[in-house]
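To whoever is covering the structure queue this week,

Two jobs came back overnight. Logging them here so there's a record in the thread.

Job A:
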Amino acid sequence: MYDSFNTLKNDCLLCRRCGLCEGRTTVVFGTGNENSNILFIGEGPGEQEDLRAEPFVGRSGKLLDLYLNGIGLDRKKNIYIANIVKCRPPQNRDPLPQEQEECLFWLREQVRLMRPKIIVCLGRISAAKLISPQFKVTVDHGVFYDKKGILMMGTFHPAALLRDPRKKEDALEDFLKLKEQLEKIKAAQN
């Protein structure tokens, strides 16, 4: 159990728990405001993320930023973004179950230290791992689940939206639902 984000990050940067460490350029720990009420979680870094040590950069990151900005969120100010695995899987393949299990330790500590009110899972892998193994993004997106006092929602991964733009409107609806939840939380705090 860690007492600070900095100590956790420093140890994570040295991680060798699974074979993904062999091919990484860097560990992609996460980015944003670690005191935020909102945590976005993807599956794992791609090539650009591995090179820049930041999640969701490139075309998918720009699309994510459009959705965030559309509801008043900013990755540098009022959210935090992380991934299930912190190192890039070869050829951007899905992270294997054992790789996910080894890396979940770091994510659990991030969640424990942050204590977010809302977690948004970006894509099927993070939603299936964190919400339910039966989670189907095409069916269950935009639905909030209360998991141990944290509201969790799954939505489409930005890369999937780039491959199938017909789902962009569904994703927008999910982000509007997220905005409603944030407004409820803010009203309850006042």
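Job B:
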Amino acid sequence: MKVSYVLLAVLAIGCGGGGGDNGYTTSPNPTPNPGGSGATGSATVSITASSDSYGYSTFSFAPSTVTITKGGTVTWNNDAGVAHNVTFMTSGSPTNIGNFSSGSNSRTFDTAGTYEYHCTNHAGMAGTVKVQ
């Protein structure tokens, strides 16, 4: 019997004592901190090249998701030496970026939303721009 009372006492202490205000509040839908959104006025996406386990070239946008503020600019840098493009799949997106094998291209996003894009030359090469 003593073990049961000790166990209950430990559980009660660990859970905040079994009643009263413990100083913590919970909210089912916490409000995000606007200052902590991580969004900036501009972002840079690199086009990267690597090899898979079979030695085939694989390409990606890095990072695959960027978050910017409304009116911000995203710049895509291609140092891979292979032709890539940025083709948007979301209505209201900026103009697509045609094939380019070096250098950089930028687009400005004036409307809040989520803009998905991909490279039509390489299956699976995709990214997202989130505009707040």
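Note for Job B: Residues 5 and 104 are 69 Å apart (CA to CA).

Please reply-all if you pick these up so we don't duplicate work.
Q.
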